[in-house]
Amino acid sequence: MAEVLFNGHAGRIEGRYHQSSRPGAPIALILHPHPQYGGTMSNKVVYALFSCFKDLGFSVLRFNFRGVGRSQGQFEDGPGELSDATVALDWLQAMNPEARQCWVAGYTFGAWIALQLLMRRPDINNFIAVSPPANEKDFSFLAPCPTSGLIIQGGQDEIVVPQTVTALAKRLNTQRNVCVDFAMVEEADHMYNGHLTDLYKIVGNYVINAVNKKKPLKKRRGRRRKDEMEDASAEDIALLTDESDDFPDGDDEL
Fold first, then answer.
1. Burial (CB count within 10 angstroms: exposed 0-12, middle 13-18, buried 19+), residue 85
2. What is the signed CA dihedral for 229, 232, 235, 240, rounded to 10 degrees?
3. d(CA 98, CA 239)
4. What share of the chain is helix, strand, coil (3-state, %, to 5)?
5. Between β-strands 102-107 and 59-63, what pairing exists: parallel, antiparallel or unpaired?
6. Is 208 in contact with 216 (CB distance < 8 Å)?
7. CA 151: distance to chain centroid?
């Protein structure tokens, strides 16, 4: 994993990047939670997402939004961070011009930015949104949602209201030509404390099935438990996790 710096519209952007050794490997961009509540690219959930895509052979980038860490600029609560994400995706694609798929993933505030980026970039094939803040942010821009994806929510989340995320997933699944899978990790809090491996497996299973097209993705309008997502082969899951909840590069930021 390499430390990278690239130019954004507000100055330098700091990131961490893994380059796959596989020719034409897919790419993934990971977006971190709210900067004003301590969110950085070193958040444990962000690191778990990064690790999952890396372990599945993706070239993957996570970065700090403007004003976070060594990234220059000031927090803008949406427009500036979306600009940062756009520049980061451009950089990632320039590094991988032969990539056969492009994914975006985000956690809380990062999920909100990721879904806005999705609306502006038809080159994105799929998304992962972890705990999108549907009780605080407006997601009406997803009309329609341009591609299929996965939403994950903790059932004991004390910050993002689970019912609002359930309603968002149901609304998106009323739209034609997309399938938004939904996984509720019933016992998980906002930080997914004690459930990072569950999160890792859910994401890994979804990505494996989507990339390899092992099964058709059907519309799900109801709540899905984490065990309902864990249906990849035993060999696939063995590649994804050692049953550990230890993601040493992360910390406990929101």
1. buried
2. -40
3. 25
4. 35, 20, 45
5. unpaired
6. no
7. 9
Phi/psi of residue 88, each to 5°?
-65, -40
For the CA atoms of 167, 169, 174, 179, the dihedral, rounded to the nearest 10 degrees, stands at: -170
What are the start-end ranges of the E strands in 83-139? 102-107, 126-130
State the DSSP string of 191-237: T-TT-HHHHHHHHHHHHHHHHHT-S------S--BHHHH--S-HHHH
Q: Sign (positive/negative) of CA torsion 156, 169, 55, 66?
A: negative
- Rounded Cα distance between 126 and 124, Å, is 6
The alpha-carbon radius of gyration of the chain (Å, integer) is 16
Q: What is the DSSP letter of 83?
A: H
pLDDT per residue, tens digit, the chain (254 aa), is 899 999 999 999 999 999 999 999 999 999 999 999 999 999 999 999 999 999 999 999 999 999 999 999 999 999 999 999 999 999 999 999 999 999 999 999 999 999 999 999 999 999 999 999 999 999 999 999 999 999 999 999 999 999 999 999 999 999 888 899 999 999 999 999 999 999 999 999 999 999 887 543 444 334 444 444 444 443 444 444 333 344 444 443 33
Length of the chain: 254
Name the residue type at position 133: P
According to DSSP, the β-strands at 180-185 and 2-8 are unpaired
pTM of the model: 0.87
CA distance 190 to 102: 27
